[in-house]
Amino acid sequence: MSNCRYLINSCIHQTYDILDFRTTQSSKTRSYYVRCQNSFDQTLDGENGGNRKLKILIAGGGIGRLVLALAAKHEGFEVQVFEKDLSAVRGEGQHRGPIQLVSSALEVLEAIDENVAKQIKEAGCVTGNRTTGYADGLSGEWIIKFDLSSPAVSRGLPLTLVICRMALQDILLNAVGLDIVRNKSKVVDFLEDPSKVTVILEDGQQYDGEVLVGADGIWSKVRAKLFGEREAKYSTYTSYSGVTNFVPPYIDSVAYRIFLGLNQCFVATDVGNGKIQWFANHKEQPMSNDPPEGKKKRLLEKFGNWCPEVVTLIQKTPESMILRRDIYDRDMIYTWGAGRVTLLGDAAHPMQPNLGQGGCMAIEVCYRLIHLSLACSIMQPACQKNGNKLRYFSHVLISHYLGDFVCAGLLPTYT
């Protein structure tokens, strides 16, 4: 697989045309064949008579789609992001809390834009230099501890950090630019023909491009159009989240801890500036309601007999700083795109917050997606001779091939 990545990256960065891409699979191995042709006499500058890079349309303006737009912008693509409500994007952090960025995701951000990565590291709180792991919810005793520092340091990678979701989105939005991100623009449908894909907005406006990336979340309209309307599944869990101005005595040694119990969990992390953020999941019927000023009382009923570390954090959190939302999921799908359209992030693979990898996976996929799109751009003269060629490579390289990487765990990971 490393050889395959090397060959594809060589074709991309050394200006080769990818003439053929095939896979064969036996019972134990999968082989990838890439045939390239030197094309130093060509240019990706359309104004100079060379190949024109793809125009990429992105539905949604959250973290994954903003990273994708930033990577596309730096590679010279024409890119347009359609977001239904930027105030909701920024406000999402109130409901979903800070986001953990592991070393591999930070390395990808550095590769995309060093200045943006620097801003993120300055705004975040490093947690990878302290103890992280699972603990028993009742006793508080450690079950297992994770070493996030040694693997990162040995590979020269940034340490894992936690950052406010709204701060991260603002950094990314400013870097991408409001000229690229269209506010109040909800994608509700799309049309596709052999030469382009057209997005249709809620107000009836239409925009054309070569590729559409549906990054519009778990309730994705793009996914529904691709694979049919299917109801999201309630996970059987509801989640409370809170932020408290409280510095526990163990803060210098413990950064991130997941307390486990029967049908319950409680996750707490240092987020810097004298604050601890936490979320608590427990089994509950969907759309249940708490009485006014009753969220803290409900939590203490559910977690009141847990260890002091958990109970204290709940008690120290003001009622106004506790939010509640039900957690939904979807059945796995094994292809994330068709033709000129592919999916990204929760639109493709919703991930529950207790896994702590949804944002990081989306960031890593963005990097690979843009470089595979570069391969498609370089191939355009050959594709023009065969109208189906671009559709074939868009599907295979961007959707199926990328889906294989992620589902098989073959995207680069370093922690």
TrEMBL record:
Pfam families: FAD_binding_3. InterPro entries: FAD-bd, FAD/NAD-bd_sf. Residues 54-369 form the FAD-binding domain. One of its GO terms (molecular function) is FAD binding. It comes from the Eukaryota. PANTHER family: PTHR46496, ZEAXANTHIN EPOXIDASE, CHLOROPLASTIC-LIKE ISOFORM X1. This is FAD-binding domain-containing protein. It comes from Prunus persica.
